[in-house]
Design brief:
Elements (H helix, E strand, L loop, with lengths): L4 H11 L7 H12 L20 E5 L16 H14 L6 E5 L15 H6 L1 H10 L5 E5 L1 H12 L3 H5 L3 E5 L11 H21 L8
Parallel strand pairs: 1-2, 1-3, 3-4
Helix pairs in contact: 2-5, 3-8
């Protein structure tokens, strides 16, 4: 593998960000960025699909924006853990889609612990996002900030929420201090997430992979 490969892969993903299966979501990201100059709003990877999406992975995006320019579960370890959960359950990327609690990042700066106002500011973008994925009826909220935004969402009097019978699952973040602990404790965190996603798949009519 040459040193150019990662950049080439990033450029390839960027060139595909307006493909029909993700275009409307990534156009929303552009519009969110335009209202806050000097910020960046990471995109949704084109492996996902707005028409097929059933489950939202809502991430507490503490830290810097990923260099890829796309929404991730966190650092490399977090991304590996998330992929491991999806692989074990047979949850294909077109059936799940990521979103960030606070969509905006300031380039080169780390998002610290979000204030209540910053979490609240993520509510309207989340509602706009949900309107673009009409079959999604489950949110798995990773981390404290995601849990708080999920609570705000369920308190809104938006007909879309109860029409879909939207259900939220609250689990830990996949990285950082929230995931610290002994190997046994970390395995329990992962098992809790697998249980949440397994239930989410059953609720949305997706079959779990055979053991």
């Amino acid at each position: 593998m040459t040193a150019l490969a990662p950049e080439s892969f990033r450029e390839q993903l960027m060139s595909r960000r307006y493909e029909p299966n993700v275009a409307v979501v990534n156009e929303l990201c552009d519009s969110l960025q335009s209202v806050k100059p000097h910020t960046e709003v990471p995109y949704v990877d084109p492996m996902h699909d707005v028409d097929e999406c059933r489950i939202i992975s809502l991430y507490s995006n503490i830290g810097e924006a990923d260099p890829s320019g796309f929404i991730t579960a966190g650092d490399d370890d977090a991304a590996t853990r998330m992929l491991g959960i999806q692989w074990k359950l047979g949850l294909r990327p077109e059936f799940v889609m990521p979103w960030n609690v606070h969509p905006w990042h300031t380039p080169g700066e780390v998002n610290g612990k979000f204030t209540p106002d910053q979490i609240s500011a993520g509510l309207k973008p989340l509602l706009k996002f949900l309107a673009l994925v009409p079959r999604a009826s489950v949110i798995v909220a990773h981390g404290t900030e995601a849990n708080r935004l999920a609570n705000l969402l369920l308190k809104t009097e938006v007909p879309m929420i109860w029409r879909r019978g939207l259900k939220t699952y609250k689990v830990r973040s996949l990285s950082g201090r929230a995931f610290a602990g002994t190997p046994a404790r970390q395995e329990q965190y992962l098992e809790d997430m697998r249980v949440a996603y397994t239930d989410a798949m059953a609720r949305t009519g997706l079959a779990k992979a055979a053991s």
